[in-house]
């Protein structure tokens, strides 16, 4: 793994494409948040105030990574399982994607070629489909594969921020449409996610900027904080991955949740708070940052099943 040392967050900086991806995600997140607020107001009984009182520090907010922080496993893979069930693509595509996800979780770093291949595959699958169609399917897939994989402990942390009157955002490399569905189902403010280009409500098969990953997440949080008038020094951020150190380092209250080995070491060095909601056996595995995530993949594909059996 020494040859992959250049991938570590300490030596990466935001590129122009990272900034573009972050700004696009922040814009999409604010729009989706406004739509969710309007839906909530419509659903509230007429003549009554919303159940939740707006109190506390309005300059503070919370930012939560999604995969293996809020939810066990990768949201994009669970979404892919749902699309496969609906005949969007063939089994060989699912097997390839499962292997890429399992390799990332076992190795703890991303292979650029794997990431590019997965990105291109996902974009080719949705190209020509309407955004509204994928949003509707996302609602169904959440119920089928995601709802039961939400970490209760992390959800309680998010709800504590909401109870304090703070906005809570998901920040993920998953498509913003999927992230928005999950945020709405959890009662969160909204989501920052990867923005796929669409024209007249139809996906073109291209991204706006790059996937919201690593430095791009930090750029998205920075852009959203500026637009919302937040003080990042009073904000909190939560993640399981060392890839999110740029985002965690932005805020005054960083938390390592179910951390991988590199993030755990980094968090202890800087005296960041840690929370681990995995079982003791899984949390103790060194070099396997998300055993539950691999387990979720294993449940869906033969390739991941083989990996799971070899680890027994």
Describe this structure in words.
By secondary structure, the chain is of the alpha/beta class. The chain contains 13 helices and eight strands. The strands form two sheets. Strands 3-2-1-6-7-8 form a six-stranded parallel beta sheet, with helices on both faces. It has a two-stranded antiparallel sheet with strand order 4-5. Strand 7, helix 10 and strand 8 form a beta-alpha-beta unit. The two termini are 23 Å apart.
Key words describing this protein structure:
312 residues, alpha/beta, 6-stranded parallel sheet, two-stranded antiparallel ribbon, 13% strand, disordered N terminus, disordered C terminus
* Helix-strand topology string: HEHHHHHEHEEEHEHEHEHHH
- Tell me the total number of β-strands: 8
Quaternary status: single chain
Shape: globular
N-to-C span = 23 Å
Please bin the fraction of helical residues: 40-55%
Low-confidence stretches: 1-12, 38-54, 284-312
Radius of gyration, whole Å: 19 Å
Question: What's the story with the biggest beta sheet?
Answer: 6 strands, parallel
Mean pLDDT, to the nearest integer, reads 76
**Class by alpha and beta content:** alpha/beta
Placed side by side, the strands forming the largest sheet appear as 3-2-1-6-7-8
Number of helices: 13
Strand content: 5-15%
What's a quick, concise take on this entry?
It contains 13 helices and 8 strands. It has 312 residues and is an alpha/beta fold. It is globular and about 45 Å long.
Write the layout of secondary structure elements.
Layout: H1 16-43, E1 61-65, H2 75-85, H3 91-107, H4 112-126, H5 131-146, H6 152-163, E2 167-175, H7 176-186, E3 190-194, E4 196-199, E5 202-207, H8 215-228, E6 236-239, H9 245-248, E7 253-257, H10 261-270, E8 273-275, H11 280-283, H12 291-298, H13 302-311
Helix pairs in contact: 1-8, 2-3, 2-5, 3-4, 3-12, 3-13, 5-7, 12-13
């Amino acid at each position: 793994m020494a040859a992959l040392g250049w991938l570590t967050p300490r030596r990466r900086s935001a590129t122009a494409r990272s900034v573009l991806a972050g700004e696009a995600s922040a814009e999409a997140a604010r729009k989706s948040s406004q739509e969710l607020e309007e839906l909530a107001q419509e659903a509230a009984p007429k003549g009554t105030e919303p159940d939740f009182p707006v109190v506390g520090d309005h300059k503070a907010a919370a930012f939560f990574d999604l995969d293996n922080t809020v939810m066990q496993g990768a949201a994009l893979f669970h979404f892919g399982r749902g699309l496969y069930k609906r005949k969007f693509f063939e089994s060989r595509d699912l097997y390839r994607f499962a292997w890429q996800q399992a390799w990332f979780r076992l190795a703890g770093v991303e292979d650029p070629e794997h990431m590019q291949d997965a990105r291109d595959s996902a974009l080719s699958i949705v190209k020509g489909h309407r955004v509204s169609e994928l949003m509707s399917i996302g609602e169904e897939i959440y119920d089928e594969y995601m709802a039961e994989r939400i970490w209760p402990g992390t959800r309680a942390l998010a709800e504590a921020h909401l109870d304090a009157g703070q906005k809570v955002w998901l920040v993920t490399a998953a498509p913003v449409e999927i992230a928005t569905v999950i945020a709405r189902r959890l009662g969160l403010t909204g989501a920052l996610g990867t923005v796929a280009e669409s024209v007249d409500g139809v996906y073109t098969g291209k991204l706006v900027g790059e996937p919201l990953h690593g430095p791009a997440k930090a750029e998205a949080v920075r852009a959203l904080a500026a637009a919302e008038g937040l003080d990042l020094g009073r904000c909190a951020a939560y993640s399981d991955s060392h890839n999110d150190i740029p985002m965690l380092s932005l805020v005054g209250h960083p938390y390592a949740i179910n951390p991988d080995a590199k993030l755990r070491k980094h968090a202890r060095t800087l005296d960041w708070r840690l929370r681990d909601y995995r079982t003791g056996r899984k949390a103790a595995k060194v070099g396997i940052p998300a055993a539950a995530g691999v387990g979720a993949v294993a449940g869906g594909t033969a390739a991941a099943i083989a990996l799971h059996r070899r680890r027994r």
